[in-house]
Fold this protein.
Amino acid sequence: MNKIKLLFVFVAMALAAPAFAAIDTIAVDVGISVFQTMPIGVVPFEEEGTIKWANEAPHLILTRDANLSGRFEAVNSDKFDLVLFSKKRARQYVTGTATKLSNGKIKLDCYLYAAETKDVLLGESYTVKPYDVRQAVHSFFDKVVYRLFGERGVASTKLAYVSKIDGVKQVVISDYDGFSRRQITRDSSINMMPVWQKGNKGLVYVNFRKQRPNLYAITFGGKETPLFTQFKQTFSPAVNPKTGELLFSVTEGAKTELYRGDMKTGSAQKFLHLKSNQVSPSWSPFASEVLFTSDRGGSPQVYAVGKDGTDVRRITYMGHYNERASWSPEGDRIVYTSMDDGKMNIYTCALDGTDIIQLTSNAGNNEHPTWSPDGKLIAFASDRGGNYQIYIMRKDGSGVTRITNGSENTSPTWSWFFDEKKVK
């Protein structure tokens, strides 16, 4: 068996897992960060009427959003406390009112205040069903990020990943913080390697119902569609962020190569004409280049190539096993997985392979890194707690937070921004 097949088998084995369960704890590793965070006060909402929250009260959701964002540090207080906020240097605070309506819905009035003057810096109102409170609060928090930083927040984004449910690996999606999970695939065969379609309208993933890997697409609220059925084995999908076309690996005989294809027409052409094996493609944010893993140098390494399949260049040289690279949303850095002394760890580097920074160490295996769409965070899978779970960390490796629990969860992939559209 050649090296690139060993790579694929390793990925498949890493996805084997015990049973799916709900989240009940969040583990946080507060590391040393080179990024300054802004303290922000968080005060419980005033409640009008008896409200039974579906998951958590709004101030707890805001606290989690603040601490996960990589931008803020939540300063919690049971009520407005200028002395505490001043001591903690929290110049703003968030709070609001929640009103239970006669139709069963909840009206949320959410506010961002200046702590010293109590001036309203931002106000938003939402009337939602109890189950949609979480999404409304995420939306408000993203507006807080924009109001204070002039940039988009990621609290309304989603993650897709693989979880073992009733003994079968299935694709699921959740809020970026692991809550509001929803099962997408429901058959009895293995499902793996999910990626988001352009515009977050659905997913592309790999299914093994024919006892071999094949690509499928599914739209949210729609049906599953097999892709590129002219090939027997297809896997490692990557969606072009500009056009929606797909790059993917095809295995024929003893060789695995990259193809590019149109999911609507089913047409596909060979992307690279190399003698080596090629897997794990990743488009640059501007769709001008592609990263991929190849054994052309003797062991799996990360390479880059132009969007037309020319100008191949090697990125990684340190170590004998580097794979699953992806571009930062700004296009200035690459995150990838490398094997160190038999353990998988996550690194970032500049586009020319220099300025290497190790983000994980001495904490089990750490794999499948994926950038948040604002470039501030990285989600990944790790077995540091015994079995594989999904974690989020800041892009410098600090603030590691587990967002799944119970059964084994792997292969996260972060959505693009949603532009206020809901996944139903």
Q: What stands out?
A: Residues 1-34, 420-424 have pLDDT under 50 and may be disordered. The domain at 38-149 is CATH 3.40.50.10070 (Rossmann fold). The longest helix spans residues 133-149. The CA atoms of residues 164 and 320 lie 31 Å apart.
